[in-house]
Amino acid sequence: MLKAVLFDFNGVIINDEPLHEKLINQLLVEENLRPKPGEFRQFCLGRSDRACLTDLFTLRGRVVTEESLNKLIARKAQYYQSTLESLDTLPIYPGLHDLLFKLRAANLKLAVVSGAHQGEIELVLKRAQLRDYFSVIIPADQRIPSKPEPNGYLLAVDRLNQHFRDLNLKPANCLAIEDTFAGIEAAKRAGIPVVGVANSYPFHMLQRRANWTVDYLSDLELDRVQQLYQQTAGTPKVQ
Which CATH number does the domain housing residue 33 bear? Predict the structure, then answer.
């Protein structure tokens, strides 16, 4: 049966991928490197800043030490926080509040599994009054391999089991909500069925990869999802 729903953050909870692309490009310019069209989508979308920046600098023949990488990531985090603080309203995706309310009413456990940093996630969730919904947050600060590696999702399952001693949660009891190819692959490699929400890629491109695909969070039919888990032991194949 379905016991937990694991959310990606950027591109699922908050519509901030364009901001991340802008800030990554800003870092490159500040380091006397030229941004290239399409690079963010290829190397950064759905992945951690650490993985993204390492690849972008390596492609340009620039050796980046652990110390300099940490400074770049911290600088970007500062830019991100400053930008969000300047906004009157955060770009939270429509339908998220209603979905979270339904999930909690169904007694499902909730977690965030993201390549974003703890401070960024906490800032957004608290300001949007969403923090209390999530029992576990697995951020990039954990220094686990970036998506598409499954480590973050597997750690979330473990942490939820630690938090709720009688839960007996397994990956097949979870549902992941993702918007990128890397995120979908990470969830599936962890053995977790995944809903692809068409926020960053067209519906038909996600449909080829996810177990189930929706245009908007409001299209996710919880009753139907729960029935699928009961019928197929947690491996729904509905598109």
Answer: 1.10.150
Instruction: Give the global pTM.
Output: 0.91
* Res. 208: pLDDT tops 70: yes
Reading the block at residue 103, the tokens are 């999930």
Instruction: Specify if 74 maps to a domain.
Output: yes
- 139 in the same domain as 57: no
Percent of the chain with pLDDT over 70: 97
Helix (H, G, I), strand (E, B) or coil at 137: strand
* Rounded average pLDDT over 121-137: 97
Spatial distance between the Cα atoms of 61 and 111, rounded to a whole number of angstroms: 38
In a domain, 237, yes or no: no
Buried/exposed 52-79: b ≥16 CB within 10 Å, e otherwise:
bbbebbeeeeeebeeeeeeebbeebbeb
